[in-house]
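General statements about sequence and structure are easier to judge against a single worked case. Part of our work consisted of pairing the sequence of a single chain with a tokenised description of its backbone. The amino acid sequence and the backbone structure tokens for this protein are reproduced below.

***
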Amino acid sequence: MKTVLVEAEEPPSATPRRQSPSKKSFIQTTPAPTLAVAAPVRRIRPEFKVSERSAEFLRRHYPDATVDNWNDWRWQNRYRVRTLADLERMIRLSDEETDAIRRHAGALPVGITPYYASLLDSEDSLQGLRRSVVPVLGEYIVSRGENEDPLGEDSHSPVPGLVHRYPDRVLLLVTNFCSVYCRYCTRARMVGSVGERSVKKGDIELALDYIARTPVIRDVLISGGDPLSLDDDRLDYILGRLRKIPHVEFVRIGSKQPVVQPMRITRALTRVLKRYHPLWMSLHFTHPDELTPEVAEACGRLADAGIPLGSQTVLLKDVNDDLDTMKSLMQGLLRIRVKPYYLYQCDPISGSGHFRTPVSKGVELIRGLRGHTTGYAVPTFVVDAPNGGGKIPVSPDYVVGYEGSDLLLTSYDGGTYRYPDSGERLHDSHGDSK
């Protein structure tokens, strides 16, 4: 089927513009689901690509919806896959998946946008993307060292919604809502736990006031939940407030929206973001199956808006823990103008044992990337230390030792090379010269 798209300044089924959030609560409301698109639109060049895979999924599972509905991020949110019945309509669930969904209660609900659901293998329960968003019984097994807040964020929170762990930077949590819930989420204790999309405006104001009166803070990372799930006016308000604080030099946004809901990256959104440079964005990528034409277009829009893009990938057992998959992901990210930034050891969140690999696996993957592909495609492998210790890099050891004043080094291909080193010798972790 050939699809002809249309564009409006706001998505066709958008709700009316709300008043400034400085005058009301930050609670977002969701209109009742509707597939009707009655508003006239200007017929100019299409705003979003729709891949053949997406078009086929739309025809099969949402026959009453239009392409304009599909390309409306609010429609994607309203029609997320949320229940066992929703999933059974789209994929053949294993007995374990079915039992895990029936057993679920509390935070970290099931939530998958129709777009992201179109990327799931309907038959293979071991597909990487499917494992990352569909519950399994392993979620209910708590292993040694796991807890609900493994990074100690709550203990480093001077006011609600703000984490001040590093000296010069803070984490600002502006929502507990994500369009798609990853089953290994570090903030599983928070997301969806008190009503989706809800966040107290008073808490946002307290956090912004804390930043304003703390001159040492020069870097603010906006996260959540997913901050790009907020409406444009709310993002505009938060970014505007931060930009008025003289000592805030650097603002970042952490998001998976361009990956799970690329139609969120509207031209209107990029116009908002461009007003607040220098602005950087860290995107959460998991697997090369996410590198679709739609995602490439979304990342291109952000890059064209002057926003440097970095990827943050969590190392996950049987999802992306083999070299071919990781290399394909990292090289693919560069093709869509995203620089691989961090590869994270999976945090010991409660019920995440089935996702975690040994730390040695991450070191092995970095060794397999270094020298075998461009350095731009090699992320930094880090362990986010429990209880607020911060990100600690873990790397392969390329230092063999010394012969006289020559430093002996091992190259990526296993060769040994001498470097004339007249400075102070390197030391190993025991204090002995290598």
Summary: Residues 108 and 188 are 5 Å apart (CA to CA).
